[in-house]
């Protein structure tokens, strides 16, 4: 065999072995992904030696038991703390697991950016949707209770009480859906909702608060409607899709009323 031929032969063999080794990566069940009865596909990747669990987004195929968390990689390259691997229905997924995904897409930097937040809706897993909806309900409840103390307009007070009543019921409905999926909503607001509530606390009682409250309600329901519309068309779980579809009319009604009241008190 001529030297040139031998070199070419070994190069082909080496390339084949390298390709085979590469093709085995990520075809298994994945260390960060399990499902109720199927195999979860882990799309997470680690880059270099500083990234730890960055971008874990295991999507389980185990039916109602499958939940998925998403993480937003920060500029430091370590984002494992905000991501939650897919898990079976027997493992609770808490609000902290999805805070990074629902809060923004820049490792926390976009946590209070409405556009960045809404940009996550299209790919938001059901678990994250439920956690975010629970946080939004909590915002409505706390803001409504604040309005009972600081609002002066009778119409605004009436609207605020309606928000407390309706979103208390919505929270109860959400919990019955979330529990079988192993989703445990947090009692703390997500960053974007906390920022909205914080803005209200800075407003003086009276007309200034009335305007700020109605504006916040219009914004909150605009975000909710966009998120619920996505899930009403394509949720991973039938019960989640039904919940989103049935809740949409209420959210749309609330937004319409908030917009009309906001103009009156402005």
Written description of the protein model:
By secondary structure, the chain is mostly helical. It is built from eight helices and two strands; from the N terminus they run H-E-H-H-H-H-E-H-H-H. The chain has helices at 3-23, 95-103, 114-118, 126-150, 154-178, 191-201, 207-234, 238-265; strands at residues 93-94, 183-184. A two-stranded parallel sheet has the order 1-2. Helix 7 packs antiparallel against helix 8 (238-265).
In short:
The chain contains 8 helices and 2 strands; from the N terminus they run H-E-H-H-H-H-E-H-H-H. It has helices at 3-23, 95-103, 114-118, 126-150, 154-178, 191-201, 207-234, 238-265, and strands spanning 93-94, 183-184.
Short key terms for the protein model shown above:
mainly alpha; two-stranded parallel sheet; 8 helices; 2% strand; disordered N terminus
Task: Note the topology.
Blueprint: H1 3-23, E1 93-94, H2 95-103, H3 114-118, H4 126-150, H5 154-178, E2 183-184, H6 191-201, H7 207-234, H8 238-265
Parallel strand pairs: 1-2
Helix pairs in contact: 2-4, 4-5, 4-6, 4-7, 5-8, 6-7, 7-8
Quick check: average pLDDT?
A: 71
Sketch the topology as an H/E string, one letter per element: HEHHHHEHHH
The biggest sheet amounts to: 2 strands, parallel
Structural class per helix/strand content? mainly alpha
Q: What is the CA–CA distance across the termini?
A: 89 Å
**How would you sum up the global shape?**
elongated
Instruction: Give the uncertain stretches in residue-range form.
Output: 1-91, 100-110
According to DSSP, the number of beta strands is: 2
- Rg over C-alpha atoms, rounded to the nearest angstrom: 23 Å
Question: Beta-sheet strand percentage?
Answer: under 5%
Helix content: 55-70%
Q: Total helix count? A: 8
Main sheet strand line-up = 1-2
